[in-house]
Amino acid sequence: MKTRELAEKYEAYVIEHRRDFHAHPELSWKEYRTSGIVRRELDQLGVPYVMVGETGIVASITGGRGAGRTVALRADMDALPVQELNDHLPYKSENDGCMHACGHDGHTASLLGAARILCDLREDFSGTVKLFFEPAEEVGGSIHRFIEAGHLEGLDGCFAIHLWAELEAGKISCEEGARMAGTDFFYGKVTGKGGHGALPHLAIDPVTAACSIVMNLQTAASREISPLEPFVLTIGRIAAGERFNVIAEEAFFDGCIRTFNPEIQGRCREIIERIASHTAAALRARFEWVDYFYGTPPVMNGKAAAALARAAVTALCGEAALGTLDRIMGGEDFGIFLQNVPNGLMAFVGAMNPAKGCNFSHHHGNFNIDEDALKTATALYAQYALDFLAKKGVLS
Asked: What pLDDT is stored for residue 1 in this prediction?
């Protein structure tokens, strides 16, 4: 197939760019160097693009066979505030405390490779491929800027790839249905009355109240949500006080919820507020929100899009490459994309290879990918777009 041959042709190009991005990671909203390289490569290809904010990019590749469908391909660009521990890598992060620990460097490089393939095959297809290079995916907010600018309007389908460290290299998961969880984040405050640790009866201890709230919140999963529904409520941080013998005036806690059910996600703020408020009141303290951030909805792969992706994988790599992956409790703002665009899918391209030391989880300081996965990701980006534009399969 032309796509596979061209992916092999551009494999060194993609690896080179992935390593460059990896060595120079940039945090959310600060992807200036990365975005600049993407724009330079698009300019060299003669691909027009528009900016979204300071670092977001939407590029367009129109086929030479006239009008047709429009499909979006998305790659995220930001890194994480993680210290890289891969001292043996010649392309180890040069930015202290910042690392591509989730594979976004590979996503960006692979989409650049796919852009080259699509430009080479421009005269073979009709319609338009939109390339979305998204900043700040890790903080779950940038997709709204693309929506506000109107870039999701007129799309007939969308597709994203996530290189995945828990799936062996050579396997690709593109199952339908819920794939990643919906996530909300919250920050609560408990107010009491400060005092001396030796005289607790004269104070109102917000630490005791906050700890009781944390424990009682776990009843949301055990007593308010069906046991048949996967649901996680995690408190990741509690903060209060300055000294061992001083009862603080205030205590703070923050955490997150994760679920595959949008209806449950919609109830979570009320559940947390009710439990926290009554628990605090029982201990003479007061609960209030500092913030409740409605994060990302679940990533829900469409049935027709999944069938189209499976056919593309089979054509590129053979049926043996089709892998399976359990649903993932991690969140992804591509779920927002899928809420706004029909016929969408996120595929997971295996990047685990213990023989190459690629067996650490996402967000770990030793995270790395088997770079053989990049050729697969590059080809799949391009092939899915071509098959979608050629109207292969039945789409809703």
From this structure: 72
- DSSP, residue by residue, 301-358: E-HHHHHHHHHHHHHHH-GGGB-----B-S--THHHHHHHSSSEEEEEEEEEBGGGTB
Do 290 and 378 lie in a common domain? no
Domain boundary, last residue among 296, 312, 338: 296
Q: What's the rounded Cα separation, in Å, for the pair 246 and 206?
A: 12
Residues 10 and 144 reside in one and the same domain: yes
Start-to-end CA span in the chain (Å): 27
pLDDT of residue 396 exceeding 70, the answer is: no
Query: Beta-carbon neighbour count of residue 250 at 10 Å?
Result: 17
Q: In this structure, is residue 331 part of a structural domain?
A: yes
Token pair 């890194």: residue: 79
Average pLDDT over residues 1-13: 96
Domain count, the chain: 2
Mean pLDDT to the nearest integer, 284-296: 96
In whole angstroms, what is the distance from residue 115 CA to residue 132 CA? Answer: 11
Which of 296, 315, 332 is a domain's end point?
296
In tens, the pLDDT along 358-387 reads: 999 999 999 999 999 999 999 999 999 999
DSSP structure string for 50-113: EEETTTEEEEEEE-TT----EEEEEEE---BS-----TT-TT--SSTT-B--SSHHHHHHHHHH
Specify whether 68 is located in the same domain as 12. Answer: yes
The CATH number that applies at residue 324 is: 3.40.630.10
Residue 392, pLDDT score: 79
Mean pLDDT throughout 298-305? 96
Residue with tokens 């990047």: 351
396 part of a folded domain: no
Q: Report how far apart, in Å, the C-alpha atoms of 149 and of each of 56, 75, 120, 375 are.
A: 11, 18, 29, 32
The neighbouring-strand residues paired with 74 are 132, 160
Same domain, 116 and 96: yes
